[in-house]
Amino acid sequence: MVLIATGVYGLAVMTAAAPWLRSALLTAGVIFLWVYGTLAAKRAWHGFLMRRQITTSDQPVEPAVSRMHAIVTALGFSVPNPHAWLDTTVLIGSASTAYEGEAQTAFGLGAIVGSGVWFLVFGALIWWLGGHLTLDRIRHWIDAFVALMMWGIATMLMASAIG
What we know:
Layout: H1 2-17, H2 20-53, H3 67-76, H4 82-96, H5 102-129, H6 136-162
């Protein structure tokens, strides 16, 4: 929540001081999302092709980890992770530059609420799926979903910038 607020409102101040920065950040955000989606699509496509070539049954790729290891790993993906900082402050912040005033505030609050809901649902889904996430076929479908989601967000950002 803090990182999203920093991105949305910090970039609002920066783009007010340098109006050209708004377009540059929005363009960079769209490019980042498109590339990220393309990488996920390549992983998914490669995985689907490999599954067609190999006729063995799905076997877990990695051994199960302890609860403590899972918690420490999850924490490692948050605050000390520079990617998390870039996603929240730069990506969400640059997406917020497509809006001004109250619309930007609504976008920031929506991003914060959406993030909270996303992580609650994501955590519950991971708990529910448990060991099935180690199966290759599940990972490929997740990559495909991520690709579509990233491309969709990039397209909506472009549309909001144009119109």
